[in-house]
């Protein structure tokens, strides 16, 4: 059975927690208009930062569209692997294009790419912006949002016929890419797999919306069994479901299991996901603030104190009534954020100061 980071099982949503905290566990599944087997949307590029520009997809070539941002730790971690794949398959007609999206400060993109050097050994581009949308451009909308993908890094493989053959995490990309290049890939099997995952995800959302929490939990278990790559994210959904159900014991036990795994594997992304679940997702008002603070602290420490996780840690301190620490951290977030998002962060800081 094909393995992919399925449309609704968003394996790396912590990378965008400042942008989509309300969308990850939304009760209603987003409308999906781009699936595997569909013609690839066009490239909407504002500027080519590195490599040879690509105006359109050429038949006979395979393209990898890799979505990333400068502030995304998992994106940076995946770049050497993506570079290796470009080098390995270049002579076989594979073209990798790294497309920057969801960037809070566009002035950081070119210096970042230059600093990466050979760690980012493929074409790099900045997406065409959308008027009135400071962090979502044309590529993020026509590709990521259309496919129901809210986490980066995220890769799309466009086959020799211009069809979206695969989408998922770049670290899971080598096997399908090799098969697509060799002409042995089965897009129908992948499409059928994705459709099944999509249908189960829809059922889970509907059950959650109807407050049928036990049913939703069972469906999340089915999704984890169907696609083991998403087992972690399904457990995070279950933490939220247990909280909504009012089963604090089950929620706490599963949260402790996830936190232990994050500590053992030094997985800051998982710790951040857990903290966000307990602080912002449905049912979070019933979560244990101390656990949330422990998870947020671990995420912050493992991320080398990134601004993205700084905001999360400030929120955790505030939830625990430690507003002096929350104010100190949130002030740094405000100072590091550019307009128009700066105003939003200032409002959060003002709320902490009132408490």
Automatic annotation (TrEMBL):
Q: Where in the cell is it found?
A: Cell envelope
Which stretches make up the UVR domain? 194-229
Q: Where is the signal peptide?
A: 1-28
Record SUPFAM superfamilies: Thioredoxin-like, TPR-like
What keywords would UniProt list here? Cytochrome c-type biogenesis, Disulfide bond, Redox-active center, Signal
Would the keyword Disulfide bond be found if you checked this record's keyword annotation? Answer: yes
What InterPro entries does the database record attribute to this sequence?
A: Redoxin (IPR013740), Thioredoxin-like_sf (IPR036249), Thioredoxin_domain (IPR013766), Thioredoxin_ResA/DsbE_sf (IPR050553), TPR-like_helical_dom_sf (IPR011990), UVR_dom (IPR001943)
The molecular function GO annotations come to:
oxidoreductase activity
Gene3D superfamilies per the UniProt record, alphabetical: Glutaredoxin (3.40.30.10), Tetratricopeptide repeat domain (1.25.40.10)
- GO terms classed as biological process: cytochrome complex assembly; response to stress
Cell membrane among the record's keywords? no
For this UniProt entry, what's an example GO CC term?
Answer: cell envelope
Start and end of every Thioredoxin domain? 34-185
CDD domains xrefs: TlpA_like_family
User: Main site of residence?
Assistant: other
- This protein is called Redoxin family protein
Q: List the source organism.
A: Humisphaera borealis
The major lineage groups are: Bacteria, Pseudomonadati, Planctomycetota, Phycisphaerae, Tepidisphaerales
């Amino acid at each position: 059975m094909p393995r992919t980071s399925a449309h609704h099982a968003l394996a790396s949503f912590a990378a965008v927690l400042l942008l989509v905290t309300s969308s990850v566990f939304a009760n209603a599944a987003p409308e999906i208009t781009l699936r595997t087997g569909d013609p690839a949307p066009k490239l909407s590029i504002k500027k080519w930062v590195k490599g040879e520009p690509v105006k359109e997809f050429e038949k006979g070539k395979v393209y990898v569209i890799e979505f990333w941002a400068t502030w995304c730790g998992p994106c940076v971690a995946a770049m050497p692997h993506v570079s290796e794949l470009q080098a390995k398959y270049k002579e076989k007609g594979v073209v990798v294009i790294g497309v920057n999206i969801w960037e809070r400060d566009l002035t950081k993109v070119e210096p970042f790419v230059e600093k990466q050097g050979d760690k980012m050994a493929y074409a790099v581009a900045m997406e065409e912006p959308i008027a009135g949308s400071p962090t979502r451009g044309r590529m993020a909308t026509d590709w990521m949002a259309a496919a129901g993908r809210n986490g980066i890094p995220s890769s799309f493989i466009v086959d020799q016929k211009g069809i979206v053959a695969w989408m998922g995490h770049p670290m899971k990309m080598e096997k399908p890419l090799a098969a697509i290049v060799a002409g042995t890939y089965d897009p129908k099997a992948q499409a059928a797999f994705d459709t099944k995952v999509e249908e189960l995800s829809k059922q889970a959302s509907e059950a959650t919306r109807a407050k049928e929490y036990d049913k939703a939990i069972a469906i999340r278990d089915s999704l984890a069994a169907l696609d083991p790559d998403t087992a972690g994210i399904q457990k995070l959904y279950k933490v939220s479901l247990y909280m909504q159900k009012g089963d604090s014991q089950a929620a706490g036990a599963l949260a402790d299991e996830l936190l232990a795994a994050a500590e053992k594997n030094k997985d800051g992304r998982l710790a951040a996901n857990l903290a966000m679940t307990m602080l912002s997702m449905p049912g979070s008002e019933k979560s244990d603030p101390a656990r949330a603070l422990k998870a947020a602290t671990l995420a912050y420490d493992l991320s080398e104190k990134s601004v993205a996780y700084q905001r999360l840690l400030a929120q955790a301190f505030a939830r625990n009534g430690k507003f002096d620490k929350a104010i100190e951290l949130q002030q740094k977030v405000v100072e590091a954020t550019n307009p128009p998002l700066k105003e939003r962060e200032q409002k959060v800081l003002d709320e902490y100061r009132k408490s």
